[in-house]
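Summarise this fold before class:
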Amino acid sequence: MFKDKAKDFISTAPNIKGYTKEGLIDSKPIVFCAYKGLESYQSLIYGDKILSINGKKIKNMYEFYKIKNKLSWNSKVNFSFIRNSQKKDVTIRLKSFNNWKKKFPRLGFGLKQNNNYVEFFDLQMLSSVLPKWTSNTKIQSGDKILSLNNKKITTIKDVSDVMSDFIPNKIMKISVFNENGVINTKIKVISYNSFLKLNREFCSKYWPKKAAEILCKEYENNDFFLSEKYKQKIIKKYEKPTYKKTLLKATNIALKKGRIKLTKKGKLRTKNKSIRLYT
C-alpha cells in the first residue's frame, strides 16, 4: 500500500485504469504498509520512498504501476529505496498469483486526516466492511476513528502501524465516534479471493445471466477492471424484460440501505456518478 499526495492510500491491487493518470503522477512512491504473509512484509516499511525497480528509476506512482505491470509471478524483484535519508536495496521473490489472491485483503474503505482525527470515507461494497449488497454496517463515511485493534489512532501513521495485521480471516476491532456517540464493532477481513466470489454472486443475481458470465470472466482476466460503458453495453445486449424488475428491486434495496440516493431529476447518485433509472 502507498500514500497518495493528499489524504488517501493507494492500493497496488486495482488495475492502473482504476486511477487517473494525473493523480498517480502527482503521488510519490512512498510506502504506507506491507501486509503480513505477502512478499514485501518487513522488507518495505512505512515511509520508504521507492527509487527504482529492477534498475528502472521511478519518480511517481504512475511510473511505478507501469513497471509493476510488467513483472512476472515467481520471479525476483530488486528495489532501491530511501529510508531515513539512507539509500537501501532489497531483493524480493514474488510468489504465485493464487497466493496473492488468497492473502491480499479487500478492506473496502478510504482514510483521510481531519485535524486530530483520522476519518473513514468511501466505504465500498463487496469488501470487509460491506460484504453483501444488503449488509448492515455500524461504520459510516465521516466516522472518526478512536482506535483500531485497541491502538489509539490520531494520525495516518498510527493506522499504518496496525494495518499490516489486517489480513484475511482476522478480526478488526474498530472504535469510532460520530453525532450518535461512540461505536464499537468488529469486522472480519476478507481476501481478494473472497471478494471475487462475492462479486460473481452479486453479478449472477442482479445482471442478466449471460452478461454476468461474460463480464465476470473478462473482469478477472483483465486485472480487475472493465469500463462502465463496456459493462452497460454487454448488459443491454443480454437483458430480458425480467431484468428491469430485478434492477428495480436492487435499486429499492440500495435506497433503503443508503447505498445510493435519488436526485430531484430521477437519477441515482453514488460515488459522484449518476445512473439513469429505468422508467
